[in-house]
Amino acid sequence: MSKKLLIVDDDLPFRERLSRSMEKKGFDVDSSPNFKESINKVTDSIYDYAVVDMRLEDGSGLELIKEIQKISPNTKSLLLTGYGNIATAVAAIKSGAIDYLPKPAEIDQIYDALTNSKEILPPPPENPMTADRIRWEHIQRVFIQCNRNVSETARRLRMHRRTLQRILNKHAPRE
């Protein structure tokens, strides 16, 4: 018996590639490009699994996972995000996701995250981010949350505004 999987991502080529790959692995796959259509699908059908992108054109993947959990508490959701950091991981788990993966995620990683029901830590990443890269991503995330206001971001990060401006003007450190 195949398991029903809903894939929610506004990136059409990725969504189609992931759908085909998961069908080959035995899933019965539905897909959706946005929040609203996904809610309609979850309301109309029962899914065993959901793979949800963090950023959708009409809403947040975290909010979608919360809604999926309300409508279908047995659906196991996985969050995919281009912003792989600790805050995102915590928010994903609090929203009801069983796990989260930073993009670009490999098909096998996604499959393993969905089907591995053991409560064990995943293996360490082969190419973990450097400390400089993690710091830079955190600063970028806070900067975006502060609506790109340098003074407010500097205050929240407890750093001098000029120091923050120098960091923001540099390119991202290599992974």
Description:
The chain has 175 residues and is an alpha/beta fold. It has two domains: 3-115, Rossmann fold; 131-169, Orthogonal Bundle (Arc Repressor Mutant, subunit A), CATH 1.10.10.60. It contains eight helices and seven strands. It has helices at residues 12-24, 35-44, 61-71, 86-95, 107-115, 131-145, 150-157, 161-169; strands at 3-8, 27-32, 49-53, 55-56, 59-60, 76-81, 97-102. It has a five-stranded parallel sheet, sandwiched between helices. Strands 4-5 form a two-stranded antiparallel sheet. The protein is elongated and about 55 Å long. The N and C termini lie far apart (41 Å). The model has no long low-confidence stretch (mean pLDDT 85).
Topology at a glance:
Elements: E1 3-8, H1 12-24, E2 27-32, H2 35-44, E3 49-53, E4 55-56, E5 59-60, H3 61-71, E6 76-81, H4 86-95, E7 97-102, H5 107-115, H6 131-145, H7 150-157, H8 161-169
How many DSSP helices?
8
Summarize the biggest pleated sheet. Answer: 5 strands, parallel
CATH class of the largest domain: Alpha Beta
Oligomer kind: single chain
Number of strands: 7
Order of helices and strands: EHEHEEEHEHEHHHH
| N-C termini distance | 41 Å
CATH superfamily heading of the largest domain? Response regulator
Kindly list the characteristics that best describe this protein.
175 residues; alpha/beta; Rossmann fold; Arc Repressor Mutant, subunit A; 2 domains; five-stranded parallel sheet; two-stranded antiparallel ribbon; 8 helices; 49% helix; elongated
